[in-house]
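#struct-pred
JK: can someone run the complex with (2R,3R)-2,3,4-trihydroxybutanoic acid? inputs below
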Amino acid sequence: MSFRVKSVVVLMMAVLLMVAAVGCGGNKGADGNNNAATPEPQKMSLKVGHVLAPDHPYQIGLEKFAELVKEKTDGLVTVEVFHSSQLGNEREAIEGVQMGTLDMTLVSTAPLAGFSNAFLVFDLPFIFQSRDHAYAVLDGPIGQDILKDLEKNGILGLGYWENGFRNLTNSKREVVVPSDAAGLKIRTMENKIHMASFRTIGADPTPMAFGELFTALQQGTVDGQENPIPIIYTSNFFEVQKYLSLTGHFYAAAPLLINKALFDKMTPEVQNAILEAAIEARDFERSLVAEMDTNLLDEIKAKGMIVTEVDKDVWLEAMMPVYAEFENEIGADLIDAVLNYNY
Ligand code: EAX
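RT: done, structure tokens with the ligand placed:
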């Protein structure tokens, strides 16, 4: 290559390098700050689904969550709440959050046992003696570690909300002691401990998605079911159930779940806003369930249900065999740690 041609090539490269330098640093304004258009944080709308009625604490609590998230992110993130199984039943919703086809869901722990065995301990009959006991375990290291176990499934738990202490209803007869339930077809959640507990007292457990339950009760496909007072009332079970026994045999915690990959993509500020809102709304939702547990009993009686107090110790003794049946699977240490948690 002749000297002349070489000189032109060198000159052209020098010009290109200068243009490139100006191009990179060219966003420096007079103030010396980099005025490169920092990407505007993206507006985001999250969908959360649950299976309960529009006037249940799940819905009211999630509406509070939506309000707090919008406020804490200055409107950047909005949350749409879908009730009454519009986005699928609980197992489908958990699968959806796992796959990322659904952003969030609020479910009972019972169906989660199918995704992580660690949750089984919470489904043992009478494992929690009170709300204070439940909250101390769930919000402490034991509950948080079990929630963390979901992350291997791509699901992030944002804390435990509350479904509540579950009571037995049926359309056939008053149930005072466990043997009164013998032979009754009782719908349970899709959870092997719940089913074993009712089998132990001689009932006939039938696992079923919540969305199918009212019709099954109406048509007599099942004789009874078990749920907390707020669900019995807001799902109108008093229309298809005559007898309510205040057994309080299981405590159902309700973790708020979000797709982990979606959460991980959010900015730290948005993540903190969502975490804070989830805890503030959790406390609001828990207090609402406790309030309804007390206030709705008279309403349920007024709707014609016969409400029976029972001796819970008798029910615990009758369901006790499930502890031995599942001890190896759950772990004796974990059962003991939960039962005797110091709070
Ligand atoms: O989590 O299925 C049930 O009985 C649950 O209480 C309900 O799905 C709310």
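RT: quick notes.
Residues 19-32 have pLDDT under 50 and may be disordered.
The CA atoms of residues 29 and 35 lie 6 Å apart.
JK: thanks, will look after standup
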